[in-house]
């Protein structure tokens, strides 16, 4: 096992390596250790799993999940875990994928591999490590890799860190104008696009724009469980971050960008007065130009508007998607319309002409993948699944957020 602060280079994977650099530089990164890629390579090879050895991803995942880790590996994990949790506020940890094909300058692999929060004890940690390895063989990860301009070996390191019981969490794209999105509690729902977050834009250490989201639930650790609970109406009347916190996040993001040598997509969490950095990967695709006014109509005929999340324009027939059971109905050139997306939906992005959702933020995993694949996306469109009929044809403008009917 590698102590996170020393876990640089390809053995640490794309997620852990920049966090190690930040930890070395004194940034607030939760302490952790890394199960390096060579452990995965050895275990996979010993069980007959190498790239190209099988096209049956379900079989490969099942075989990985059935593996008994070698006693030496379990012993090393147990010792590293004991050292990590000694003196910590709790003995819960986060177990996070850190593959060789994620968080690079060319590909984010946002949401394509699994991570697990509030894991406790060596048995649960070992099982979560196997699940991270197995996610390398998922259909969504394979579909994502097929769209990338360069080949990445199928290697997976796993990062185990102290767990942060967050008061608020979110993501940030740094730049001349930084974009910050946030929600109360843990950040699972915001990165998955399952809610519309509060958002801010900061330029020159000044807040230049702010938007309230629609947050009705939050996720927190309650004992040994992650629980989703409602946000009371009175709590929804104010933003989940103060202006002071927003400006602190922006200053931290600018410092991270300077340290790592370029604009960054940062996942963060706030616990009390401390801002923790959970991820800091290169930005692989540009956001729409937020300096342009949001278009409210096209020749008076725009029927819907939302948040522009992936630039470009495309037309196609509306295809309503409620969940995985509807995936087989999607045809090339369809405009996918759904309440929310999920990283498991990535294979659909190779067929769809555009994506429209009722919830989500422009920094969510689905929005990032849409930009990388190059299809327009408009998010946070109220009642989109009710107002867009399956028989209709629409034009989606992911640069302005307008959705217009195409006359037959």
From TrEMBL:
<dbReference type="InterPro" id="IPR013815">
    <property type="entry name" value="ATP_grasp_subdomain_1"/>
</dbReference>
<dbReference type="InterPro" id="IPR051549">
    <property type="entry name" value="PEP_Utilizing_Enz"/>
</dbReference>
<dbReference type="Pfam" id="PF01326">
    <property type="entry name" value="PPDK_N"/>
</dbReference>
<feature type="domain" description="Pyruvate phosphate dikinase AMP/ATP-binding">
    <location>
        <begin position="12"/>
        <end position="286"/>
    </location>
</feature>
<feature type="domain" description="PEP-utilising enzyme mobile">
    <location>
        <begin position="331"/>
        <end position="401"/>
    </location>
</feature>
<dbReference type="InterPro" id="IPR036637">
    <property type="entry name" value="Phosphohistidine_dom_sf"/>
</dbReference>
<dbReference type="Pfam" id="PF00391">
    <property type="entry name" value="PEP-utilizers"/>
</dbReference>
<keyword id="KW-0670">Pyruvate</keyword>
<protein>
    <submittedName>
        <fullName>Pyruvate, phosphate dikinase</fullName>
    </submittedName>
</protein>
<dbReference type="GO" id="GO:0016301">
    <property type="term" value="F:kinase activity"/>
</dbReference>
<dbReference type="GO" id="GO:0005524">
    <property type="term" value="F:ATP binding"/>
</dbReference>
<dbReference type="InterPro" id="IPR008279">
    <property type="entry name" value="PEP-util_enz_mobile_dom"/>
</dbReference>
<dbReference type="InterPro" id="IPR002192">
    <property type="entry name" value="PPDK_AMP/ATP-bd"/>
</dbReference>
């Amino acid at each position: 096992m590698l102590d996170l602060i020393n876990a640089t280079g390809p053995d640490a994977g794309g997620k852990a390596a920049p966090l190690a650099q930040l930890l070395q530089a004194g940034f607030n990164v939760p302490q952790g250790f890394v199960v390096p890629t060579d452990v995965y390579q050895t275990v996979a090879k010993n069980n007959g799993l190498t790239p190209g050895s099988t096209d049956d991803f379900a079989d490969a995942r099942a075989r990985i999940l059935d593996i008994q880790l070698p006693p030496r590996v379990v012993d090393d994990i147990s010792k590293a875990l004991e050292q990590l949790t000694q003196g910590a506020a709790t003995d819960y940890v986060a177990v996070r994928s850190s593959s060789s094909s994620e968080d690079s300058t060319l590909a984010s692999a946002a949401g394509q591999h699994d991570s697990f929060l509030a894991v406790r004890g060596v048995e649960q940690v070992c099982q979560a490590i196997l699940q991270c390895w197995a996610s390398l063989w998922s259909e969504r990860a394979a579909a994502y890799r097929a769209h990338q301009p360069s080949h990445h070996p199928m290697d997976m390191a796993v990062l185990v860190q102290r767990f942060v019981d967050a008061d608020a969490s979110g993501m940030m794209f740094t730049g001349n104008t930084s974009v910050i999105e946030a929600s109360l509690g843990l950040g699972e729902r915001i990165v998955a696009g399952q809610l519309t977050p509060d958002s801010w834009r900061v330029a020159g250490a000044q807040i230049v724009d702010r938007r309230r989201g629609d947050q009705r639930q939050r996720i927190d650790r309650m004992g040994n469980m992650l629980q989703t609970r409602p946000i009371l109406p009175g709590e929804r009347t104010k933003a989940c971050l103060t202006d002071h916190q927003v400006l602190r996040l922006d200053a931290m993001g600018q410092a991270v960008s300077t340290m790592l040598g370029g604009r960054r997509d940062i996942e963060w969490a706030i616990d009390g007065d401390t801002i923790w950095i959970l991820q800091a990967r290169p930005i692989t695709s540009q956001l729409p130009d937020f300096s342009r006014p949001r278009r409210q109509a096209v020749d008076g005929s725009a029927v819907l508007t939302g948040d522009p999340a992936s630039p470009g324009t495309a037309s196609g027939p509306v295809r309503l998607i409620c969940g995985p059971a509807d995936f087989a109905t999607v045809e090339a050139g369809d405009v996918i319309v759904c309440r929310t997306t999920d990283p498991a939906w990535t294979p659909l992005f190779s067929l769809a002409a555009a994506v429209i959702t009722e919830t989500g933020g422009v920094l969510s995993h689905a929005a990032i993948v849409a930009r990388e694949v190059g299809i327009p996306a408009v998010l946070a469109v109220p009642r989109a699944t009710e107002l867009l009929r399956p028989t209709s044809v629409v034009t989606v403008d992911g640069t302005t957020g307008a959705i217009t009917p195409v006359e037959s």
